[in-house]
Amino acid sequence: MSEPNLTNVDATVLVIEDDILIRMPIAAYLRHCGYRVIEASGSAEALTVLDRTDLKIDVVLTDCELESGAGGFAVARWIRDNRPNIDVILAGSPKRAAEQAGELCSKGPHLKRPYEHTQVEMEIRTLLEGRRKHSQESETSGSA
Amino acid sequence: MADAALAEMRGASPNFRILLVEDEILIRLAMADDLRLAGFTVVEASNADEALNVLNTMPDIALIVTDIRMPGRMDGVGLANWVRSNAPLVKIAIASASIETGMDRAFDAVLSKPIMPSHLIASVRKLLPRAEQTDEETR
Q1: Does residue B115 have a pLDDT over 80?
Q2: Which of A1, A136, B36, B127 is the S-S candidate for B91 at Cβ 3.0 to 4.6 Å?
Q3: B46/A45 Cβ within 8 A
Q4: Angstroms from A113 CA to nearest CA on chain B
Q5: Which of A70-107 are b and which e, b meaning 16 or more Cβ less than 10 Å from the residue's Cβ?
């Protein structure tokens, strides 16, 4: 397991992946990096968690092509419509999936599978940094 | 149990790897959180098929905590029987809302749902060797 740049992260990542042999190592790596990780084995489980607004979630990492239930895109759309403060990282391989991912989150990241764990962590960190800056700017403009 | 009380137990929990098999995500999430707070390493599986994938690739699972009623090809009892035959050193704790007579003799522990976090941690710790015993064995 490569060594991440450890700092105190106070963020929760929901990992949606139906292949346990992919989900387990990325979840373990992100926990090792200091994130709280919630694991969902498909879109139904993910929506159960996302529906609970008392569960704080900052970033969702989802496979584009989940085998059962609604796919990763449907989950991403649900998040955009219902919990827009959550950032979404889509991971997929086919060209169509990449195009849809681009359309869905034009400025959001989409990872090509197989991905490096360090790359995922870097994307999450970048999104969280962006949020922090955005919230600081909002506070500054609000107090001006 | 409060986070602080669970965290206090952390020092006494050697870093065993536990496979938690539960199809209801909110129950799995709560149980996994409790076990991690107590210092255990937890692998989460949402059904028996996922659990078998883990058991076939990860030889250092010390304990499996599994729900009985789960969708899929195999339920928790089937999974436990597979573990008995193929990985006899792995301890088995069965969790169910309806415990049947004789289950306590068939498995290493039987947990009645809903499971209080303190009961979960105490049961798990009873099944796994204490850290100091492990140290002595390896000397």
Answers
A1: yes
A2: B127
A3: yes
A4: 20
A5: bbbbebbebbeeeeeebbbbbbbeeeebbebbeebbee
Q: Between B26, B29, B54, which is nearest A20 by CB?
A: B54
* Cα dihedral sign, A29-A30-A33-A37: negative
Average of per-residue pLDDT across A49-64: 95
Average pLDDT for residues B90-106, to the nearest whole number? 85
Does the interface predicted TM-score (ipTM) exceed 0.90?
A: no
**Chain B interface test: which of A22, A41, A50, A68 (most B C-beta within 10 Å):** A41
> Nearest CB to B43: which of A24, A38, A41?
A24
Give the pLDDT of residue B133: 42
Decide if B46 and A38 are in contact by the 8 Å CB cutoff: no
Domain range for A21 is: 12-129
CATH value at residue A26: 3.40.50.2300
Q: How many domains are contained in chain A?
A: 1
Is the Cβ of B57 closer than 8 Å to some Cβ of chain A? yes
**Which residues in B25-124 belong to E strands, given as ranges?**
41-45, 61-67, 91-96, 109-112
Span B14-39, pLDDT tens digits: 579 999 999 999 999 999 999 999 99
